[in-house]
Amino acid sequence: MKLGESRKNKFWPRIPFKKWIIRGHEKLGYGADNVDETESDLEDFQDFWPCEIERRYSYSATELILGRSISSDGCAGTQPRHSSATLLPKDSEMLRSKFSDLQQFRIFVGTWNVGGRAPNDMLDMDEWLGTLKDPADIYVVGFQEVVPLNAGNVLCSENSASALKWQQLIRQTLNGSIGSSASFRRSCSTQLSMWHDPDLDLSDSFHHDSGGISLASYSSYLNNRSVGRRSLQSQSPYTMVVSKQMVGLFISVWVRSELQQNVRNVKVSCIGCGLMGYLGNKGSISISLCLHQTTFCFVCSHLASGQKNGDEIKRNSDVAEILRRTQFRRSQNTNDTGLPETILEHDRVIWLGDLNYRLTSSSQITRSLLAKEDWDTLLEKDQLQMQRKAGRVFNGWSEGKIYFAPTYKYQTNSDSYVLEKFRLRWKKRTPAWCDRILWYGNGLKQLEYVRAETKLSDHRPVYAVFLADVEVLSRKKLKDFLMFKPAKVQVEELLPFHNERNFPNF
């Protein structure tokens, strides 16, 4: 037997084993609250355009503005909720400026390594999630080690009991003390006028030039829709739009309930970077979604551990693997053209988690700087900042200024770091800022970057608050366009440039 064949036969089990692991990660079903079936404001405009107009003009306003699919008989096809039907083309700046407005939404992003400890009934999440004076529009909550990372949990079936407990605690916190506060009602970024504006009523004298369609009847229909006058008191303040667990990683995304119908194209991608480079004891869960006309990606990760020299290279490699292997696959039954397929293709990206980067200073120096609370000097020895400055990881990413103490490693239920190996089961560890939040792309402004003091595990929770620019389709601009334009919409008026050879003559 040849040497090459001998090696191939010796290691052949690795191939099916890796395929088995990958198939496990590709089961990307995720949890979410029931979808609000109330139609969005964009569907009002879809209903307005009759099929006969779409038959006559293959490049109609609805196809270009709303991206509708045309069925074989010429009528507009029904789009599922998580489709790209409401996403304007990214390469058409004129379309985006012509029909959208820029609004700001407040996003809370939190990360916590809970050390395999399940929450108890006495745990107060308000100190972490409920510290904001003005509650956020979106809450992104990520955990690491929701289960102990032992062989049973890594190799066997997933244990979701702990994750469900954390999920229930988040729900109680957001829809209890936060959702019932008066500041929640004052902090809504999207005002009710976005849904209903009495000044936009259309006159009876206007008629559609081609089809003879009365705009007055449409105006009455549009302005009296329940979406504009929906009672918010009948709903929970926050709704979970997606949650996903992979071994010890767990992430859930919550939005104000009235924003739920504007969250579309939700997709999940799980990447295992642990044992053999594929097991899920380390890795990431990435969430892709569209809020109005803007795409977001939230990456919750747990990178390689260890504080020996050279361990930071493993963490750099994990980041590179996550960026390379994360794919948001297109759905077979929907038109996903134009939607991002990788992390960096999104408009706004936020990375959170236990990144495990350590300090290169000795225990004695670290102890001295900790006593002085000299964070600036201590941060000069932070591996993540050193690797970023050297251009080895997170090129082009941003991180806010750190003004808080290292978040790892604490004695459980204590304010004391584990600096000495005074018990056999406690390893000596140099404190470090393991738990971090970074962002990529324009349109994100960080307002806060702090840690909470919950003492359940050997890590402290960290959270950041962002103001995110979001492009929102303007109902007023769309109405004005539909009022004063004839049914035959010239493509040249909607596209940034045109070529007569590419379009049929009307």
What this model shows, in words?
- It is a single chain.
- This protein is an alpha+beta fold and 506 residues long.
- The chain has two domains: 41-78 and 206-229 and 487-502, no CATH class; 101-190 and 233-472, Deoxyribonuclease I, Chain A (4-Layer Sandwich), CATH 3.60.10.
- It has helices spanning 3-10, 14-25, 41-48, 51-56, 61-66, 93-99, 126-129, 151-155, 161-178, 182-186, 215-223, 311-325, 363-372, 375-379, 383-389, 475-484; strands at residues 100-113, 138-144, 238-246, 249-256, 263-272, 283-291, 294-302, 348-354, 435-440, 444-451, 462-473.
- The strands form two sheets. The protein has a six-stranded mixed β-sheet with strand order 3-4-2-1-11-10. A five-stranded mixed β-sheet has the order 5-6-7-8-9, with helices on one face.
- It is globular and about 75 Å long.
- The N and C termini lie far apart (72 Å).
- Mean pLDDT is 76; it is low at 44-85, 182-234 and 500-506.
Trace the largest sheet across and list its strands.
3-4-2-1-11-10
Fraction of residues in β-strands? 15-25%
Distance between the termini: 72 Å
Let me know the CATH homologous superfamily of the largest domain.
Endonuclease/exonuclease/phosphatase
Order of helices and strands: HHHHHHEHEHHHHEEEEEHEHHHEEEH
Using the coordinates shown, work out and report the CATH topology of the largest domain.
Deoxyribonuclease I, Chain A
**What's the total helix number?**
16
DSSP summary, beta strand count: 11
**Contiguous uncertain segments of 5+ residues:** 44-85, 182-234, 500-506
Net shape: globular
The CATH architecture designation of the largest domain is 4-Layer Sandwich
Question: Which whole number gives the mean pLDDT?
Answer: 76
Number of domains: 2
Helical residue percent band:
25-40%
Radius of gyration: 26 Å
Structural class: alpha+beta
- Oligomeric form: single chain
